[in-house]
Batch of 3 targets.
Target 1
Amino acid sequence: MAINLTGLATGLDTGALIDNLMAIERQPRTRIASQQTAQLTAKNALQAVSDALKKLGTAAQALSDPTVFGNKQQVAVGNAATATATMVSGAPTGGYALQVDRLARSAQADYAWTAPAAASTIAVAGAGWNDAIAVNAGEAASDLVARINGDPSLHVVASVSTVDGQERVSFASRATGAASGFTATAAGVLADERTTAGLDAAVRLDGVVRTSPTNTLENVIPGVRLALRGVDLAGTTINVSAPGADADAVGKVAKDFVDAYNAAIDLLRTTTNVTPTSKGALGGDLALNALQTQLRGAMVQVTGGLSSLPLEELGISTGKASGTGTYSADAVQGRLSLDTTKLNAALTADPAKVRATLTASPGVVKDLVATLGSYTGASGSLTQRIALVGDEVTALGKRMDAFDARLTARQEVLKAQFASLEATISKLNDQRSWLTGQLGALQSSR
């Protein structure tokens, strides 16, 4: 900070002199600040690497979790326009023949509409329920329909149409099935009733007739939910697979693992990279370069004995960084790729071997988890290094604080010294002026 101290007696800019002297004395402090900035940058870079490795470790643990593989059954319908099927629980394995003779539908009633001169009520009654729908005087049919459809507590929905110049209101039960019938009455408002009965869905499963009040059939095949989509007299097939590996779940954890691995490798590469024109935050760091080599080597090793496969045979592969042939940029950089088709084929061909490969201990994935833990665990080498660098950042901060205190004290000393100098010079100037005056008086008196 500039010093506002003028040299009235000496004619010197003492404030500028003090500033310049302080700038010289502040140079060691500037070097300490630069050291702290460099150490803080290194600490942040190391922490980012640690976070990425922890995410990779979490993804690797998920990939090696035996419960991911499960015993999942698949159900498929030959014609999706006929029905869709969902597994609810374990189901008998095998094929089934399905014919849909009829879809379930709701009961309907259509009435000629006359707007009431005075407020009225439409009484709608079904099996075990009653709705009382208020009608305002002179209310338009479209307004009534909008109110009915906007009230989910009612058991019916409504629509309006015009037939031969006559406005008509149609009601339909919200429920489907033969038991969905109802009546609607309102004297002077509704007339000329035309009804359509509700129907149960009717299907034939392996020739046996089954009915349902809805188009969703539970446990017609034990453990399977069928959602009917259309009538199909010709019929279609439903196939329930034997319990096997959950390909979707395995595919998800495999993708998460590959993504986490690539994120870690990318960060390590950019952090340690050194080029003629640029350098990463930890450019050329030997320990992190060794970690990159260790990670890449882990992805191509085969451990776990004869029951295991190379990851490449599961669709998880990394390219070589050298050798013959043309390689993609990802391959050269050691990134992984996931071939889900290859993974699914391996799960279909030998799910037990895929499971053994990914869950074995020792095994490629379990070994990777252990390796990552040796870096990022509570006593891991990377964790300890981050702590040491953090201690250095703190120590440098304390050195700067102490230096700042010394600089402040030194500045006050310089200000006092220059102020004293100014006072002394001012006093000498006063004495000189007095002596000059006395000498002048003596000369004039002669």
Target 2
Amino acid sequence: MTNRSLLKQQKRAKEHQQRRAKQAACDKERLTSAAINELVRHCKKKSQNEYALLALLVLISGRTVSKLFSVKPILIDDNVAQLPIRWNKAQVPESFLPETEYIKTSNQEFTLVPQKLASNLSKLQQETDAKACDRQLKAFLTKVRTSTKEHITPITLAKTLGFQKYQFNISVFEWSFLCDEPKNLLGQNSYVAFSAEKLFQKHIKFMAQFIDTAPLERYLTQLKHDVWFGSPRVLTTESVVNTFSHIVNNLNQAISQRTNYERVHNWFTVYTVQLMQLATLHRPISNVFRTLDQFNLRNNNVEIMDKGEESRRLVPLCKVATEALCNYLAYLEKLKDVARFEARNFTSEIDKSLEGKACLFRAWSHSGLTDDYRSLRGLGISDLFTKSNWHRHFISTALVSKDYDRYLINTFSGHRLDSQTAYGKSKSFTYDDLLKVSTAIESIITKLDLARAPSVDEYLFGAAL
């Protein structure tokens, strides 16, 4: 690089630094604690001023004036009110099996705020519109002179919760919920059912810096412990256990009938795929896990691509998944040995699966092996096992309840957020981080103590093809 070009580069860097410094001076987003505390004291002194009360509500809710005007506060009692969340909830799916039910999530999601602040918002909503109210709030805040000489605006006030969230163990996803951010921005909450009580406890600790939260804390003690927000598609723990019992019961019945291989094969395939989907968070697709070439049994991992090229990822196989896969491969080898004298064409189809030239998991109909796994839908197998995404909802919820990083869960499951960038947090995760998630999932599955598939060896060598 010549001296001339070096000087030009240094000049551009200096100009860029000056522009950034000037921008930071006129558009500072993060308020200091001193400025916020002085504003809070000012608002409490002016407690009869409707815009002083609105400023406090913007601060503790993390919502802008336009967002606050988009909902109607619900007054619970003389001290507590609810601010609704505008997310469209997914429909509760039908129960595919009589033995299964879903965690009941609230039809109306909300956050808690003091009744006085909510009543003031309702009054302002009747008197003016969001834009006019925002202008009035700006005018009120402009008159507040802090010792730090910071310029306080409704926007910088609303961003306080976002800047302080980690101090109170509030995740980005919980913050997006509290602030009523668009669901598709950080929509992992739509996969997870989470405890309302735990979220309120964190939010109340944040609010306690600025207002008296005793009424909210008292209300929280009366709130039912089973109030859940988020995904309505999370099976209860008992239902997951019942689901595998249902599969194993059908497999046992098929083995005991000793009539043909089709039913045994299909139910054993269902058992293996469901267990592996639970362990890897694979989405339900027709060619689930694709071919055997995607698996690396030496390193115990699998390449998954279940929603286009951008979902391609390398996922560790925990011991539960590895054993299930090895048992299935051993089953196919034995099935091939049995079939080679009676059905040569059938043997060649099994070879295609074992050589990675066809889908590994395939249904069996009257005419032989089909092209993929989802063909089971036409063979009397419930959609729960071919179409439902219940594995991802259940495991994601279990991991979040154990405080696993949701960005890490997203990376493991191939869930891409609208807000995700090339420089996002998920880009810094390593394969070792994914191994930790896989180990946690294995622990969850082990504790479920799921029904185990019986050995099909005796059946294979005792029934006619």
Target 3
Amino acid sequence: MAVRWEPPTQGLSCAKLVNIRVYTDRGIQQKVTASPNETEHILYNIESCSALTVSIGVVSEEGAPSKPVRSQAYTAANAPGQVQDLKVFETKSHGLHVKWSPPSENHQCLFKYSVCWREAGKTQQECERHGLELYPGISIYHLQSCTEYVVTVASMGSSKDIGNTTGVAVFTGPEPVTALKVDNVDTRSVTVSWESPPCAQQFSVCWGAWQDKGGHSCTSVTNT
């Protein structure tokens, strides 16, 4: 950031140096000095996407400071870094839930997230803008069952700059079973049968007495 000023109209001959202070909402970020003959100074290593207050004052040979002059500034935006820890939290037949952690690089520039999803092997995709949250995540609905999807999340800066995109591939679940039947009931066993939906690989079969109120036993059955 370049800072320019006009020298004082009085007392310049007794000036020793010019004090330049840069403040953020967290306090002083930089303190530099310039010679009385200078009227411009370039400040480096300043955080992007930051509101700053620049204060300039002149100090005499005896160390007496002038009243500082202040000006407000806002540094330019950089694209925030990519999101971290993108993972699928839950998968259903027609939907899924993904979550992630905010980017650590240029986090102060983060404005929103752009979440997109598409079927694997296809280019057409749907996207949604997602606001900032303490624990960011999104649920995606109206998907096809038994289908591989690619979900990408990109961080967005306030100037709509988009950072690096992070993606994950996931399969949606199968449809529910159909034609569920219970046959051959005797005192100690029953036979359960059903029709399998496409792409189902395993089933969870649970049973229990009605009065158990949820205290059921379960077993896994592989689709054959």
